[in-house]
């Protein structure tokens, strides 16, 4: 293998990850395989037996994600029907009654909602915020530490390496929700995590048209537990969703680069508005998370958060947006925004806005936001 072939860049890996070698008269990415069962002659079991266990379309996607999350080091990825399917698989395959799990108190609200279910099963749950590596103080006796960085929706950042080292010293496994950063922005496994988990619904697939999740680990015994959980619970992705996500990977680097650049421009414009407070984006030089983010991230993501004076002001702002869709997600090629407090569950002000910056021209995004802010202030 030449030096070029052994050291491809992010965009090159994204384009070619998981695709078979070129073959005459065959597509570059074979179409989805729809099968509930496979032909199994004789007593020998083949690589594909039943549609709840494995599927060739999943395999290609999983190999692609592994090459992005863990370039150069063998890893195993398992795809799921949603991000929450992936998150649940790690938590419920790795902990038992009597164990302790440490969750971020400011993580994605659906992840935090699992606290009650874990406690129903006899698992103790401790909560601590992401900022300032506060979870360090909750590690004693824990079985698993769950990290989300940057956090959703507050965009706080913690030091993955520091937390992972401390967790391992305490005998705990470490899982990192890498949804917002993507594997091109941050590689938790390189920073000591045992699991990198993400919702592929967001930036990974990037078009707001499918649900998907995944778990990547370098430890075969951990992967086996997650695989068995997926098989018995049946949280499997559809072949079409897996194929669409794999197809979308070819533009991942282009999208996340454009979104990160656009997000910085929007954040800078928001800082100039007197009615806007608490503008957060890890790429801003004076953001509280910037120094830690710079040490472990190569791209800072598409999400900008900020706060308007109150609920009514925020609702007026959202209603005046022309280019931006009001939606509860992030990472799409189209810009989206929401007043996050409408859903409850997050400790944010009523005027808190989570804005996901798309790949439109930055000037158009800023112009749309500016005119909406002007209209909302009247």
Automatic annotation (TrEMBL):
Q: Which co-factor is required? A: pyridoxal 5'-phosphate
Q: List where Basic and acidic residues composition bias occurs.
A: 1-10
Q: Does the keyword Transmembrane apply?
A: no
One example GO MF annotation? pyridoxal phosphate binding
Question: Which InterPro entries does the record associate with it?
Answer: Cys/Met-Metab_PyrdxlP-dep_enz, PyrdxlP-dep_Trfase, PyrdxlP-dep_Trfase_major, PyrdxlP-dep_Trfase_small
List of residues that carry N6-(pyridoxal phosphate)lysine: 202
What PANTHER family does the entry give? CYSTATHIONINE GAMMA-LYASE-RELATED, TRANS-SULFURATION ENZYME FAMILY MEMBER
Q: Which family does it belong to?
A: Belongs to the trans-sulfuration enzymes family.
Protein's recorded name: Cystathionine gamma-lyase
Q: What is the lineage of its organism?
A: Bacteria, Bacillati, Actinomycetota, Actinomycetes, Kitasatosporales
């Amino acid at each position: 293998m030449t030096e070029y072939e052994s050291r491809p860049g992010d965009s090159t890996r994204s384009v070619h990850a998981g695709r078979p070698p070129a073959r005459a008269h065959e597509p570059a990415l074979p179409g989805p395989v729809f099968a509930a069962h496979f032909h199994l002659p004789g007593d020998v079991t083949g690589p594909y037996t039943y549609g709840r266990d494995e599927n060739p379309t999943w395999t290609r996607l999983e190999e692609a994600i592994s090459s992005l999350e863990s370039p150069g080091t063998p890893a195993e990825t398992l795809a799921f029907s949603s991000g929450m399917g992936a998150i649940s698989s790690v938590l419920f395959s790795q902990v038992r009654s009597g164990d302790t799990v440490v969750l971020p108190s400011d993580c994605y609200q659906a992840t935090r909602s699992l606290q009650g279910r874990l406690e129903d099963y006899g698992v103790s749950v401790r909560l601590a915020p992401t900022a300032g590596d506060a979870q360090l103080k909750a590690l004693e006796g824990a079985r698993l530490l769950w990290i989300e960085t940057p956090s959703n929706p507050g965009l706080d950042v913690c030091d993955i390496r520091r937390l992972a080292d401390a967790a391992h010293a305490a005998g705990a496994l470490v899982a990192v929700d890498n949804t917002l950063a993507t594997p091109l922005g941050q590689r938790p496994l390189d920073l000591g995590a045992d699991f990198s988990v993400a919702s592929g619904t967001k930036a990974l697939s990037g078009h707001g048209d499918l649900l998907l999740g995944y778990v990547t680990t370098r430890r075969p015994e951990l992967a086996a537990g997650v695989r068995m959980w997926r098989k018995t619970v049946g949280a499997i992705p559809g072949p079409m969703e897996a194929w669409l996500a794999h197809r979308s990977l070819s533009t991942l680097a282009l999208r996340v680069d454009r979104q990160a650049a656009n997000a910085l421009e929007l954040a800078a414009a928001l800082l100039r508005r007197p009615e806007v407070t608490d503008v957060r984006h890890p790429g801003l030089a004076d953001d509280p998370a910037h120094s830690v983010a710079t040490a472990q991230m190569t791209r800072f993501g598409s999400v900008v958060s900020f706060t308007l004076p109150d609920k009514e002001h925020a609702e007026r702002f959202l209603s005046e947006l022309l280019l931006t869709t009001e939606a509860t997600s992030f990472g799409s090629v189209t810009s989206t925004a929401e007043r996050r407090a409408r859903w409850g569950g997050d400790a944010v002000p009523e005027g808190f806005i989570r804005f996901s910056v798309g790949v439109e021209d930055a000037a158009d995004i800023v112009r749309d936001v500016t005119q909406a802010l002007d209209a909302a202030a009247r």
